[in-house]
Design brief:
Shape: globular
Strand content: 25-35%
Largest sheet: 7 strands, mixed
Helix content: 25-40%
Number of domains: 1
Oligomer: single chain
CATH architecture: 3-Layer(aba) Sandwich
Structural class: alpha/beta
CATH topology: Rossmann fold
Radius of gyration: 15 Å
Length: 195
């Protein structure tokens, strides 16, 4: 596991219970429903699933959804509170076979990935996705950063075009992209297809 990822996971392990109680685990239904409409099949990998709210949403809609996260405490909460299959797994070292999934949901993971590590993560994404598989991404858009000094998480913001370019280099075709406001900050939402 990368050193900066360890700090991020330690942060989430420390706030896991508060995270779910505070209401931070919100399903952005309009975004995930747009992703669902484009899925070519029923198998979905929820990367950095946190406490499992999106995995639960997808599972309840009839998808065979597998949620992974590096935070053992988040995965514990997911198994306790939500439907779906969950496992602690490093997204930089996916212990999964090739072309297993029709979709990959990546809500709030890229914000914790250094830009020089993004190409490897996207390459691994193409490996586990089937041809014509869909990736859905929500991450922080480039903007002025205001953070609490006690927040030890890696926090990376992307320009929409920058993220689109990385996806295209990794073998994806952009199907939809927008910037939208959420939680007092702008977010990038992209859906792309593996070709």
């Amino acid at each position: 596991m990368k050193e900066y990822t360890k700090k991020t996971i330690k942060f989430y392990d420390g706030i896991a219970e508060k995270y779910i109680i505070s209401g931070a685990a919100i399903v952005l239904k309009d975004k995930i429903d747009k992703f669902i409409k484009l899925l070519p099949g029923k198998y979905v990998l929820d990367v950095a699933c946190g406490p499992g709210h999106d995995t639960d949403y997808l599972t309840k809609r009839g998808f065979n959804c597998f949620g992974i996260d590096l935070s053992e405490r988040m995965i514990g909460l997911a198994k306790k509170n939500f439907k779906g299959k969950y496992e602690v797994m490093d997204f930089f070292d996916l212990k999964l076979g090739d072309e297993l999934f029709d979709g990959m949901w990546c809500s709030s993971i890229f914000v914790h990935i250094k830009k020089n590590d993004l190409p490897k993560l996207l390459k691994d994404s193409t490996r586990v996705l089937r041809v014509n598989g869909i990736i859905g991404i929500i991450t922080a858009a480039k903007q002025k950063k205001v953070r609490d000094k006690s927040d030890t998480r890696e926090y990376v913001m992307y320009e929409k075009k920058e993220l689109e370019g990385n996806l295209e280099k990794a073998g994806f075709k952009i199907l939809f992209a927008e910037i939208f406001p959420y939680g007092g900050r702008n977010r990038v939402f992209i859906i792309a297809k593996k070709y």
